[in-house]
Design goal:
By secondary structure, this protein is of the alpha/beta class. It has 13 helices and 15 strands.
């Protein structure tokens, strides 16, 4: 393993020119760290540029776990360097920062994968409502392809610009996609009870995320007012072919990584258990990162942490009109960096699982 890691040390004089050159902007955040960890073990890329808007210095000083794995140095973001050194750029920045960077990168012919929320919502009015800011790059908003591979793979393959999904929406959309796509007209209501580890809030320093406030505690937050609500509703509506409102309530778990969502779907018509199970298994039959659990087996966060898998379990009420879907991912992998690399693999025609299995 160490020998392989040494092969990924950045050296411009020995780099294989067939490799794509990748940059990470936002290396000091959790998403940037996980991106680098995955990409250092990817057979077809070399990480040639890392940057941040405030933090600078050796990456192995910012994240000591990278000692002996890379000699990359993080600099303040510079568009000239990014264009010169990269073919593809990942933006792992806080919301409202990517929109200042995307335009020049696309104009320079670079492929961009944005992990923030800046390009997920297609209506600028929704962005202003939920993120309390005007969108500064309407020109490129329509160019962004929503990067949920299991649903939008063809569009991703032909795109130069990906809006990586949010972590909560990834769990919800994968959990609901088969049912909504096939039986959307029979759905009366959708209630999503979501629970996330603390890393979902990013690396910012805030009292509510300190150990003594999170440990031995469990709480709901931003009830009926979370910014991922319109993202979930927007793409469920695309799948269903009609407006699909949702009730979404997030909670904070006293763990580092992982999201588990319990989704309650009320139906207008009865559905057979065998039909429900067959629907999900057929829908995800060829998907490498979605696992539908056998009957009676429930999903667990510990089974997906540090992986790009999404596990889904299904339960049907006795009257066969209430479907309970439990869905789980690692919020930093399938919910962020892993899914971003999965999108990159599709864009460049690599094996979709490269670097992720």
């Amino acid at each position: 393993m160490l020998g392989r890691a040494r092969e990924h040390l950045v050296s411009h004089c020995t780099m294989d020119t067939s490799m794509i050159r990748v940059g990470i902007v936002g290396i000091s955040g959790f998403g940037g760290k996980v991106l680098l960890d995955i990409l250092l073990n990817h057979e077809d890329v070399r990480v040639t540029y890392v940057a941040a808007n405030s933090t600078t210095g050796r990456v192995d000083d910012i994240w000591p776990e990278f000692r002996s794995r890379t000699d990359l140095v993080c600099s303040k973001y510079d568009i000239t360097q990014a264009v010169e050194l990269c073919d593809c750029v990942f933006l792992a920045l806080p919301h409202m920062e990517s929109m200042n960077i995307v335009g020049p990168l696309l104009k320079a012919g670079k492929k961009v994968i944005d992990l923030s929320a800046d390009y997920r919502l297609k209506k600028t009015a929704l962005y202003k409502k939920w993120y309390n800011a005007e969108h500064k790059d309407r020109k490129n908003l329509s160019k962004a392809v929503y990067g949920l591979p299991e649903i939008f793979r063809v569009k991703i393959r032909n795109s130069r610009f990906i809006a990586n999904p949010g972590c909560y929406p990834t769990v919800a959309l994968l959990g609901l996609a088969p049912l909504v796509s096939v039986a959307g007209n029979t759905i009366a209501s959708v209630i999503i009870d979501a629970k996330s580890g603390v890393s979902g809030a990013g690396r910012k320093v805030a009292e509510s995320f300190m150990f003594c406030f999170v440990n031995e505690n469990f709480k709901a937050y931003r009830v009926l007012n979370h910014q991922h609500t319109p993202e979930i509703s927007q793409y469920l509506s695309v799948m269903a072919g009609r407006e699909m409102p949702v009730v979404f309530v997030p909670h904070l778990l006293p763990i580092n990584n992982g999201i588990l969502e319990t989704i309650y779907v009320t139906l207008n018509e009865k559905m057979a258990e065998s039909k429900l199970d067959a629907l999900y298994r057929k829908f995800y039959k060829t998907e490498p990162f979605v696992r539908v659990m056998p009957k009676g087996i429930q999903v667990e966060i510990k089974n997906v942490v540090n992986t790009n898998f999404c596990d889904i379990a299904l339960t049907l009420s006795e009257d066969r009109k209430l479907v309970v879907i439990t869905s789980v991912i690692d919020n930093l992998v399938k919910g962020a960096a892993g899914q971003a690399v999965q999108n990159m693999n599709i864009m460049y025609g690599y094996q979709e699982t490269e670097g992720l299995l």
